């Protein structure tokens, strides 16, 4: 259940309201929900088509890439004047962002190709140059940077990691403990059957 519907249901139960109407196409705008500007943008009976999110099959933009936003909203366009840009807080569409080619600082579309060594690289469609993937994108955000990391006192050393200390033994836990503490068992275990 959407959060807005939950809030309406909670408010209705407090005021003993039986029937609730929720705008299915409620759109969040720059103003907070409940303010006059938000109510004007979402008047009753005004239905807008939902924002369709296209699935991204292959990410071409990575963390640390230089990109340009292609779609700006301008108001008051006239001949010889492009208009005034209006800032609007909306989700950023992946397809409205273009990667910047480092060779000439212009937006470009890319495709993936393979080098002679067999490495998969991004190549600019306009200039044909290889666009390297930034080092930031290759790092896991949960792990520290290996170049800047210094060993701590509780870290396991490289020599200890390479040692083989485990020996495979086909024993149960009880048999292992008995061997470790020199316990001799003269009784024989009865057979168990699982059905």
Structural features, described:
By secondary structure, the chain is of the alpha+beta class. Among the domains are: 3-41, no CATH class; 67-138, no CATH class. Helix content is 18%, strand content 14%. The protein is built from 5 helices and 8 strands, in the order H-H-E-E-E-E-E-E-E-E-H-H-H. It has helices at residues 3-14, 36-41, 135-138, 158-162, 173-180; strands at residues 67-69, 74-75, 84-85, 97-101, 106-108, 110-114, 120-124, 130-131. The protein has a 3-stranded antiparallel beta sheet, with no helix packed on it. The chain has a 3-stranded antiparallel beta sheet with strand order 6-7-8, with no helix packed on it. Strand 7 and strand 8 form a beta hairpin.
How would you describe this structure in keywords?
single chain, 195 residues, alpha+beta, 3-stranded antiparallel sheet, 5 helices, 8 strands, 18% helix, flat
Number of helices: 5
Spatial shape = flat
Run of helices and strands: HHEEEEEEEEHHH
State the separation between the terminal residues, measured CA to CA.
45 Å
Radius of gyration: 32 Å
Strand residues, percent: 5-15%
SS-based structural class? alpha+beta
């Amino acid at each position: 259940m959407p959060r807005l519907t939950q809030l309406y249901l909670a408010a209705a139960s407090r005021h003993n309201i039986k029937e609730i109407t929720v705008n299915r196409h409620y759109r969040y705008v720059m103003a907070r929900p409940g303010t006059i500007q938000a109510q004007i943008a979402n008047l009753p009976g005004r239905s807008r088509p939902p924002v369709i999110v296209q699935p991204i099959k292959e990410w071409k933009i990575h963390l640390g890439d230089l990109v340009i936003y292609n779609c700006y909203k301008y108001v008051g366009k006239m001949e010889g004047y492009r208009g005034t840009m209006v800032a609007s807080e909306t989700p950023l569409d992946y397809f409205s962002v273009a990667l910047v080619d480092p060779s000439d600082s212009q937006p470009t579309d890319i495709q993936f190709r393979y080098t002679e060594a067999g490495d998969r690289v991004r190549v600019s469609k306009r200039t044909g140059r290889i666009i390297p993937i930034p080092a930031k994108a290759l790092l896991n955000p949960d792990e520290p940077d290996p170049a800047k990391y210094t060993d701590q006192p509780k870290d396991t050393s490289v020599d200890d990691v390479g040692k083989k200390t485990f020996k495979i033994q086909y024993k149960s836990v009880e048999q292992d403990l008995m061997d470790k503490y020199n316990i001799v068992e003269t009784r024989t275990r009865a057979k168990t059957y699982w059905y």
